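Hi all, posting the design record for the shared folder.

TITLE: backbone redesign
STEP: 1 of 1
STRUCTURE INPUT:
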């Protein structure tokens, strides 16, 4: 049972050192009880107190990992019902279903789309991460062969789906280094699959008919020593599954239910045969509150919006979306092409780069790290000023890409031009660009 703030306070060192980020141990204890702080933030807590406080400091929804290090899907660890309260922590894994009853062409097509459907977005790569491999044939050898094929041809985090322990055992022997999710323990096979999960040190899904029946299975699994559990309430309608997601999240966060304090898995692929409707259902579960979402297939026109939606929902609202600092070529620029500089606020980048593309004037766009602030905000904060911009330009390597020494700065920060010229030296000419990005096209077309 979770401890209160006062109970936690009694176990703290009471140094009031402030190194945890709050001024007093009492304030830290209250934050710890509310799930707003990590126990590791206290540098002076004793090992005895740490052991006693482990339950109080643990996230109400247990975090777990599926997959190898280079493509590891982390789910769970959530502490809030609504994103604006704090932030959502671990974005849901998106999986495609592949069955050993499918033809080779079907399997190969889905594996190809898994590998190819990746998108560069604001300095990130958006992609699906998981493949659910289902044993529909009942043949353990055939299933093992398919799992090995998926392993050989992709870096996917795996979900192994079978109601036959012998098929799961064969598949686990081949795939256990990737920590696959074993699906699924039920009231009938709970003991057998718990033993498999413990032997191969893999997470295990628990499935029941309704949320009420899940608790008996999870309690039995935890008693057997299985800690990493994923919940499937068994609902295969949008309304039923949505209600179950909300009930499970509220039970874990509000009612402090340890029996339901685990991430969930949903199957839009089993809720409809319409691909577009399936995408809409998946979007619902991205928002509330699936840990894994299994789709029947991947198509670019439906997968891309889901990936962007997931990114937006699981981006910390207190941190702006940022581009990586660097030099971005737009339109195959050459050594005599214009060079412009701006901040790494994602919206600024997209607006400026879009206007440059629209001008059809190949250019070099230098994006400076201003911690995600826009041009005016970064200037006001002292992060987009003459000396800082000058240091960035000199270290960027732009002189290896162009033969001229002209740099265009946004018109709104024309006041920094003097300091920038002084920082860069007499070889450079600082040009004042337009105040609005919409005026970049005519500015560039005039020539520099």
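Okay, here is what came back for every position:
SEQUENCE:
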């Amino acid at each position: 049972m979770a401890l209160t703030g006062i109970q936690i306070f009694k176990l703290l060192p009471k140094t009031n050192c402030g190194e945890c980020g709050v001024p007093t141990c009492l304030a830290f204890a209250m934050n710890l009880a509310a799930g707003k702080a990590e126990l590791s933030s206290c540098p002076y807590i004793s090992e005895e107190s740490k052991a006693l406080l482990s339950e109080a400091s643990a996230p109400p929804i247990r975090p777990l990992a599926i997959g190898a290090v280079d493509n590891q899907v982390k789910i769970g660890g959530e502490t809030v019902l609504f994103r604006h309260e704090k932030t959502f922590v671990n974005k849901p894994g998106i999986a495609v279903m592949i069955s050993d009853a499918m033809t080779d062409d079907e399997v190969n097509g889905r594996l190809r789309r898994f590998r190819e459907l990746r998108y560069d977005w604001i300095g990130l790569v958006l992609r699906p991460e998981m493949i659910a491999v289902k044993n529909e044939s009942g043949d353990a050898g055939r299933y093992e062969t398919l799992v090995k094929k998926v392993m050989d041809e992709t870096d996917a985090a795996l979900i192994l789906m079978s109601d036959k322990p012998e098929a799961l055992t064969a598949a686990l022997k081949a795939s256990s280094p990737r920590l696959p999710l074993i699906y699924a323990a039920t009231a009938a096979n709970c003991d057998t699959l718990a033993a498999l999960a413990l032997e191969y040190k893999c997470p295990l899904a628990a499935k029941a008919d309704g949320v009420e029946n899940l608790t008996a299975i999870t309690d039995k699994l935890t008693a057997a020593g299985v800690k990493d559990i994923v919940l499937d309430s068994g609902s295969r309608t949008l309304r039923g599954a949505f209600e179950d997601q909300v009930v499970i999240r509220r039970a874990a966060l509000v009612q402090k239910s340890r029996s339901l304090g685990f991430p969930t898995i949903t199957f839009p692929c089993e809720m409809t045969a319409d691909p577009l409707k399936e995408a809409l259902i998946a979007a619902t579960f991205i928002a509330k509150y699936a840990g894994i979402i299994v789709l029947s297939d991947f198509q670019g026109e439906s997968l891309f919006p889901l990936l962007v939606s997931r990114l937006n929902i699981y981006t910390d609202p207190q941190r702006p979306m940022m581009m990586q600092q660097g030099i971005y070529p737009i339109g195959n620029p050459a050594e005599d092409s214009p060079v412009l500089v701006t901040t790494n606020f994602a919206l600024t980048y997209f607006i400026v780069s879009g206007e440059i593309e629209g001008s059809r004037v190949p250019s070099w766009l230098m994006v400076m790290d201003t911690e995600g602030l826009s041009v005016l905000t970064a200037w006001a904060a002292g992060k987009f000023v003459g000396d800082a911009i000058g240091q960035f330009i000199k270290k960027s390597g732009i002189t290896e890409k162009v033969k001229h020494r002209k740099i265009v700065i946004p018109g709104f920060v024309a006041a920094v031009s003097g300091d920038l010229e002084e920082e860069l030296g007499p070889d450079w000419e600082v040009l004042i660009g337009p105040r609005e990005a919409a005026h970049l096209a005519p500015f560039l077309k005039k020539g520099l």
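COMMENT: The mean pLDDT is 93.
Let me know if anyone wants the other runs.
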